[in-house]
């Protein structure tokens, strides 16, 4: 870290007494409250501002140092950053936890209540956004200069409520009481154009220059949040963009009496940063999504280019100083926008502009799902981004010309590799654009990257076999072990020493304690305390009482058919039937806990949530169960709720259809905290199996090649249903309305879909899953063996740190120096 310059203020004083004084000053002079009149939220704001003071000077020093030393900087572009609460993270990473908590106690303020006052930043949906947050923290922890670029959503993803078992969506109000971590930068406001026309202007030398004249301009205004690395060694910046109209009020229209029309342009502009993922099942919804993606991508490029030119001058050196990472296809328009800026605004020749563009950009693919590999109607692109569409046509012409030269007459290959889909309405393939415009493309697990080579990018891989690589995801252990599970962290420090706090691979030292009965008992006691905390949350949020001594079976994911929450619910029904049929057997008590949000327009996913609630209503009210089986759906899943659920998990459900989950990171977080995984050989489960050992996981179901073969053969679920008495019984209950007496036809279409199609092979894997769950029961009955396996999961997952992932990106893709 570069030392502060001579004009920098003195370091902020540390210690509990100094922190107490700082909190009181903030309460009085920033919040404007007295101790007697302060509410819990006031104390939170004062505490956060006092902690923030410790962050600011190192943050400014680190930003300046990157330019003083000429270091290459990473720019991570993501439509989501699911950062969660920051007070505990910043206190922990800056080593202020003990001082702040002691200061609050001396003020008769509960630290736990203050921390709970912080709202979750509603800037993401699930794994994609949480991965981006983990990566930002690891970039700072490894002292890699970096900016994260995204959108400052006013409401972000919706707040989920459950009414009569149905999901309802409400605006998330995370910014209602302001955000103490961010710094508004109104002086940094970049113009973002939409629509209009493109003119050709002839230069004095006869050259033609293109001038885009947008019909509409929106301002992207910057808000900066410092991202603190472990032990405060480095602080990076998350810069989020808020949309503003250049003129907040058309005064002439207002004075005419058109009070609504006077602010219509402002409403249209600010809709861009209003919510995350507006529904795109209408033309206006598609347009808003494309406006969002171009808005933050263009703002990011203008920002980093402005900074580069101010410091270094020529844009020819951009690849030497800048690494742009595209997190999925959402920022793929960066390829065309960077070309436009280089060609039109800076007069570069095409070949030079393309060299710079490819040299800067790399792209992470997160999915094999066709609907997630974005494409936009050509007509919409021409209307909204006319100059970019011209550039995309040119990129495509050059690209296909090279393909034709290498493979003359191969029309199939040309159609496969074209950036323009011609089959079902002309559309721009954003994944193709990102691939062509990048110097490196990566998948996020070994299996996923291999499948990319065989499927989505097969022909691209044939053309450029060195471009596609793998970078298996990871999670930050600071958030997902040290902060969310302090009791376990304390036990580990006491038992194997503190080295794992800086080197996750040092967790291997636990292996020698896995068979130690005394350590097993202490490990289990930590889990019991965490389960009691979760049981309290369940009681408060759902009214359901659960037994903390029962197995906590956890399925926490975005609700999606390929993630197969439906398979879990069907097995729950079958287990319920089995317990009723043989009530005198020694059934192992189990609590099935679900959490996750369904996209607002994803009706099948919302029906799965309703089914889970219908099953819970029946199971939880049946006196015959006697706590042997409970079903819980926790509403409004977010990072803070995950931080309570994950330390309490005994069993981790990772049961997606093989070949469809790119990686998963929940599997890593749960395993790290001592949960055993039941799952398919999908995503990072494959690599977890290699590290943890088959005897410490429960693997079931079809493999990826078997899934592919079943689909090629024309799989129909009716075959599996007829072959399985248990599954047939469950299907009969669903179709007859036994589980939905208020609407007996509610699940008829669901059953028909499983019988006739079952694209996600729920029925094909049902018997294997049910059988494997009974193996889970048998191991749970042998607690010494269960605890041994749980300890080994924690011990052997050090490799899945996001620090390791970021090191690989830094060394192999971004080419930036990194600490070891």
TrEMBL record:
It is found in: Cytoplasm. It catalyses: [(1->4)-alpha-D-glucosyl](n) + phosphate = [(1->4)-alpha-D-glucosyl](n-1) + alpha-D-glucose 1-phosphate. Its cofactor is pyridoxal 5'-phosphate. The modification N6-(pyridoxal phosphate)lysine is found at residue 669. Keywords: Allosteric enzyme, Carbohydrate metabolism, Cytoplasm, Glycosyltransferase, Pyridoxal phosphate, Transferase. Its EC number is 2.4.1.1. PANTHER family: GLYCOGEN PHOSPHORYLASE, GLYCOGEN PHOSPHORYLASE, LIVER FORM. One of its GO terms (molecular function) is pyridoxal phosphate binding. SUPFAM superfamilies: UDP-Glycosyltransferase/glycogen phosphorylase. This is Alpha-1,4 glucan phosphorylase. GO terms for biological process: glycogen catabolic process. Allosteric enzyme that catalyzes the rate-limiting step in glycogen catabolism, the phosphorolytic cleavage of glycogen to produce glucose-1-phosphate, and plays a central role in maintaining cellular and organismal glucose homeostasis. It comes from Roseococcus suduntuyensis. One of its GO terms (cellular component) is cytoplasm. Belongs to the glycogen phosphorylase family.
